């Protein structure tokens, strides 16, 4: 009898201490790849576990937080500066939701991710790069605006959705700091990332004559990089936009970005440039989804070089939802790389990948 009373008291104590509703979730995915001019093999990406909690404050506001840890960086002790790895806290009021920590920025949140269309996560998952190391024309995240999905330590403000319009703004004290760095905030003299940055984005979601659509635009502005040997570096100035439209089972999308001269110098003889775009289409038939996409990016380093580096991917995918949180997909990528020098013999791989994932 005393043991039963003790157990009941213990449960009561822990029940009273638990103020927030906690949710635990996870995702695991394994990928097989093979093809021409690649080694191929079995690998994984985005396998993770997440925890989230929220509670109501005395004044009626909602406060909460979440973190997600990717398994591969934990096992290999590799640095991981990108989502889904994150760690943030938020307060939601009637006028805005303010998020503080290592989280997504406004542009990442609101621009329609056309690159994620087509089973196999399009080019958004960057799965092809698990097997192909020949990408030429990227300054950071390929086929997307720079610093896309990077989990820098920042403050994001999301205003309420009004008549389909969404607006967010993000202030990042320094893009140098993210989940791959320590928690010390002592800026290095040199950094491969830009410094202080401001993300602003807006989107509109609506429907017209049976077509539902979402369109978003965003800008990123910030301080120049402080890299050894680079003087008079340009400030960060990026513009990006995207649109997705769904008509019945068919979804079409287009996305473009332009980094301008963000990765060049003011006194460059040849001006730097960096831009790209993606178009994609998907068709859903019950548990089956098929799709295809085309992505292109090009870059000029500037300075003494006027070579135009280019990457192009044509990709096709088919996915099947097995139910119970299990999904499978197959994607074929036909990739073309160019460093802009006609004397170079390029390696242009063709890769077939298949994946299976479980969300819980």
Number of strands: 17
Secondary structure tally, helices = 3
Give the oligomeric state. single chain
Sequence of strands across the biggest β-sheet: 1-3-4-5-6-7-8-9-10-11-12-13-14-15-16-17
Q: Average pLDDT across residues?
A: 91
The whole-angstrom Rg is 23 Å
Pick out the low-confidence regions.
1-17
Secondary-structure-based class equals: mainly beta
Share in β-strands: over 45%
How many angstroms does the end-to-end distance come to?
39 Å
Q: What is the H/E order?
A: HEEEEHEEHEEEEEEEEEEE
Shape: globular
- What is the helix content? under 10%
The biggest sheet amounts to: 16 strands, antiparallel, barrel
Short description:
This protein is mainly beta and 360 residues long. It is 8% helix and 48% strand.
Features:
360 residues, mainly beta, 16-stranded antiparallel β-barrel
